[in-house]
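In the design runs reported in the main text, the only information available to the sequence generator was the tokenized backbone. The following block is the verbatim input for one such run; it is reproduced so that readers can re-run the procedure and compare outputs position by position.
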């Protein structure tokens, strides 16, 4: 019988990152089976304090703090060691961990780890197979390389905010999408580097930046400008090149319609009882609908306002037309398809009790990713990890007294 351990079982990841892009990347690798050691300062990842909301605390003991839901959402399947690696003894711990790791991920300002002797050129001497991944705001070189990288700043600077929102004002995306995109790019790059190492026998350094990730994610908007010379404008939920492809008000809420071609537009018009829209020469093709959206959209609005969202869904869904309600988060996590695809899972946390986490979005037929461990407490695995590095109990106690580890 074939063994079905997760695909990255046996891969060791040393995670020196904080906040979102790096931890999101390492969480994906962890879900895929990697043994991820999350290195935290003595006060912990910044996001542990990012709240409210916080998870409830089921343990009534002094010094047990509540964990933020932000931290809990992106740090499952990891072990935590709390160490001051600015201390010489702490630095030794990190170097020992790096020597035995397949992947290292960090998101410090360029040059900071090199000053501590933890740069790629330093660590590859003892571990030539190391895949060293640096996540930065703007990249390791160039005029802005030392600027701090924050999602909302990059959203603005890399054009995303300019194209998001209404004509009256730009808005940021509802989640830190630039951080998430960067984490996704980084995880894919690491996976490819692991395959490359299997062929060459050596690791390499990977640079991933928020700026470059977001510029790349501009997708068709970028090429409308680069190739077509078009400076895009904000259109709310509308699409620059497809009509109708947006949200519409109904009697009791909002519905999103996506008529991606002329046949779908015809089906839509017939379903809402206005086949004349499709026969009108002004709307006979997508190109004409884009040109004449100013007259078409108000006509569609007038029709859709006459019924509820659910009424329209019952009418439109059977036609095969892409459509859906604008759900709030509660509705999203009670969606029957979301539940069917196990996108809500529960784990037992040492202080918060039983908590719900977002499930793993990628399903494998054989080597299935799993949520094996809850997000760790700060330094929860410090002793275990140090013992794996052959530190004695006495040495570990001395490190604690000296405030090197926690």
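Verbatim output:
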């Amino acid at each position: 019988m074939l063994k079905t351990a997760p695909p990255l079982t046996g891969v060791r990841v040393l995670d020196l990152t904080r906040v979102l892009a790096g931890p999101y990347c390492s969480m994906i690798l962890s879900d895929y089976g990697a043994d991820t050691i999350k290195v935290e300062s003595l006060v912990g990842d910044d996001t542990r304090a990012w709240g409210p909301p916080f998870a409830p605390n089921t343990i009534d003991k002094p010094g047990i703090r509540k964990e933020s839901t932000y931290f809990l959402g992106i740090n499952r399947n990891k072990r935590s060691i709390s160490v001051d690696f600015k201390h010489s003894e702490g630095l030794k711990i990190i170097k020992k961990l790096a020597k035995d790791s397949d992947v290292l991920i960090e998101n410090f300002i360029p040059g900071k780890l090199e000053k501590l002797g933890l740069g790629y050129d330093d660590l590859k001497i003892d571990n030539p197979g190391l895949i060293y991944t640096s996540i930065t705001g703007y990249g390791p070189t160039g005029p802005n390389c030392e600027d701090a990288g924050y999602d909302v700043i990059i959203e603005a600077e890399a054009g995303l905010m300019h194209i998001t929102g209404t004509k009256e004002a730009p808005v940021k995306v509802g989640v830190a999408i630039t951080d998430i995109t960067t984490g996704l790019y980084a995880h894919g790059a690491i996976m490819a580097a692991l395959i490359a190492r299997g062929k060459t026998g050596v690791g390499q350094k990977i640079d991933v930046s928020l700026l470059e990730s977001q510029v790349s994610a501009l997708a068709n908007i970028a090429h409308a400008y680069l190739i077509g010379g078009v400076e895009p404008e904000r259109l709310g939920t509308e699409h620059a090149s497809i009509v109708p492809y947006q949200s519409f008000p109904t009697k009791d809420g909002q519905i999103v319609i996506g008529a991606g071609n002329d046949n779908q537009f015809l089906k839509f018009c017939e379903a809402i009882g206005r086949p004349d829209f499709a026969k009108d020469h002004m709307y006979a093709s997508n190109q004409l609908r884009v040109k004449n959206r100013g007259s078409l959209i108000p006509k569609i609005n007038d029709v859709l306002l006459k019924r509820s969202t659910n009424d329209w869904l019952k009418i439109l869904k059977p036609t095969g037309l892409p459509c859906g309600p604008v759900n709030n988060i509660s509705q999203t996590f009670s969606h029957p398809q979301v539940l069917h695809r196990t996108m809500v899972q529960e784990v037992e946390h040492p202080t918060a009790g039983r908590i719900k986490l977002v499930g793993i979005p990628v399903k494998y037929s054989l080597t299935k990713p799993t949520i094996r461990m809850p997000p760790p407490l700060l330094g929860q695995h410090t002793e275990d990890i140090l013992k794996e590095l052959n530190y004695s109990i006495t040495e570990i106690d001395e490190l604690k007294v000296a405030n090197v580890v926690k």
